[in-house]
Write a structure and sequence with these properties.
475 residues, 6-stranded mixed sheet, binds nicotinamide-adenine-dinucleotide, Aldehyde Dehydrogenase, Chain A, domain 2
Length: 475
């Protein structure tokens, strides 16, 4: 293993106070250790990124695009190693780890394409007033701090690194302390491609390292993905320096199933929305709204489907769902099981931690969960589905929108006009109609309300790393 921090083109050992232990959640056992970066090392990374900025932003956009295509190609070359590492450190089933890798590759290729189009977007602006000309210049925001969580480490970092580098920004990435290894690939690839030193820096660590980065006065922008609690701290750091932020935060999303829906298909979409990545998705559709007429047919089928999921160690078994990624998350979900018992919720499936080594829980379904239940309102971040019934379309919309969060939603109905109407009424950033949660690089990602500020992916993801300048001239 290389040293864990990539600063100014060099791999270095950490000299921070924190020791990070990396676990295999399927066994609950450690398999690697590293020392966190110190506050001084975070400073060195930001200073290196600042030094590299003029050179990188003055590279032609097509040269930056060539590097991004190189990232995509090298990810492909490391495919098997990165998939195995995600299976081991995240507990992801193989097919999920493959999807993550493919997503990261697609993201680098997509932003390479947008970088190639950048010169054409620096165009003249038609003015109504005579005697003047004006032109647009899309410039990089500058040095950007990127702080990410552990649930989709390869993907979340790709969604930030690729558009930032495409725009001409230089970056300091801080991966999660739960999964500090997989994103080292981005530093290794930068090395292999000869990306100029300081353009991409990686500092690993816990809260202290994250706080040192988010409060550093050498940054021009912060892009954060993670919990609302930490997001609010990061926003406060940014506010103290009047610095822009993008925040991708939590969710408690609804999946609405109407009477006319095909039951088999509905079961497939509901199960995928709560069991993918063991429910550790910001976009988990963990609030199930079922129309009265289909509820009695759907719930037993759903119960059976959840109970039939093969839960186990992805490295040694054929599984549909792995463990939770950390012991902390396992304890948090266990606490929600206890709350459900105290609240007297009706448990149709699961509701317990599995009695085996590792951090496994059973896929869980609660019925008729009242809106005042903590399980209905709070993000659990595990395979825990809460259901309620509704009578009318209007009631479903009110129930779905009754949340502090506003990340995503799914609508299942054979009546496409109705599904589109409901999609338009939902206060979220992304809606799926009769679909699993397919995320395409061309569409946006991000939430309304408490789910965040700004958008990633698509041209909006690039715009988040650009500053718009106009040059107006008297003719
Ligand atoms: P977290 O907020 O605990 O940690 C996220 C990152 O912040 C980690 O790298 C962590 O080390 C760092 N951090 C911790 N304390 C910090 C501080 N004081 N200052 C700066 N950085 C600090 O989140 P998590 O547990 O890693 O991830 C789960 C959360 O992420 C969930 O709420 C989930 O919904 C959210 N998430 C959102 C999206 C999205 O796109 N909206 C995607 C994935 C995950």
């Amino acid at each position: 293993m290389t040293s864990p921090h990539y600063i100014d083109g060099h791999w270095v050992e950490g000299n921070g106070a924190d020791c990070i232990t990396v676990h295999d959640p399927s066994l609950g056992e450690p398999f690697a250790e590293l020392r966190a970066a110190s506050v001084e090392q975070v400073d060195q990374a930001v200073v290196a990124a600042r030094r590299a900025l003029p050179g990188w932003k003055n590279h032609s956009a097509s040269a930056r695009a060539a590097y991004l295509r190189g990232f995509a190609e090298h990810l492909g070359q490391r495919r098997e190693a990165l998939i195995t590492l995600q299976m081991r450190n995240n507990g992801k089933p193989r097919h999920e780890a493959e999807v993550d890798l493919d997503d990261a590759v697609a993201t680098f290729n997509y932003y390479a394409g947008l970088a190639e189009q950048l010169p054409g977007r620096n165009a003249d602006v038609p003015l109504a007033a005579p005697g003047f000309s004006a032109r647009t210049r899309l410039e990089p925001v500058g040095v950007v701090g990127l702080i990410v969580p552990w649930n989709f480490p390869l993907v979340t970092s790709a969604w930030k690194i690729a558009p930032a580098l495409a725009a001409g920004c230089t970056v300091v990435l801080k991966p999660s302390e739960v999964t500090p290894l997989v994103e080292q690939a981005y530093g290794q690839i930068a090395d292999a491609l000869g990306v100029p030193p300081g353009v991409l820096n990686i500092v690993n660590g816990k809260a202290e390292t994250g706080a040192a980065l988010s409060s550093h006065d050498g940054l021009d922008k912060l892009s954060f993905t993670g919990s609302n609690t930490v997001g609010s701290l990061v926003m406060r750091s940014a506010a103290s320096q009047c610095r822009p932020v993008t925040l991708e935060l939590g969710g408690k999303s609804a999946i609405i199933v109407f009477d006319d829906c095909d039951v088999d298909q509905a079961v497939e979409w509901i199960v995928a929305g709560i069991s993918w990545n063991a429910g550790q998705m910001c976009s988990a559709t963990s609030r199930l709204l079922i129309q009265d007429g289909i509820a009695d047919a759907l719930l037993p089928r759903l119960q059976a489907a959840l109970e039939n999921l093969r839960v186990g160690n992805p490295l040694t078994e054929e599984v549909d769902m792995g463990p939770l990624t950390s012991q902390g998350q396992w304890l948090k979900v266990a606490a929600y099981f206890a709350t459900a018992r105290e609240e007297g919720l009706e448990c149709l499936a699961g509701g317990k931690n599995l009695d085996r080594p590792g951090w496994f829980v059973s896929p869980t379904l609660y019925a008729d969960v009242p809106a005042h239940s903590r399980l209905w309102a709070e993000e659990i971040f595990g395979p825990v589905l809460c259901s309620r019934r509704f009578a009318t379309e209007a009631e479903a919309i009110v129930l779905a929108n009754d949340s502090h969060f506003g990340l995503v939603a799914t609508v299942c109905s054979a009546d496409i006009e109705r599904a589109e109407r409901v999609a338009d009424a939902l206060e979220v950033g992304h809606v799926w109609i009769n679909s699993i949660q397919a995320v395409f690089v061309e569409t946006s990602w991000g939430g309304t309300k408490g789910s965040g500020i700004g958008r990633e992916l698509g041209p909006w993801g690039l715009a988040g790393y650009q500053s718009v300048k106009h040059v107006t001239r008297c003719l």
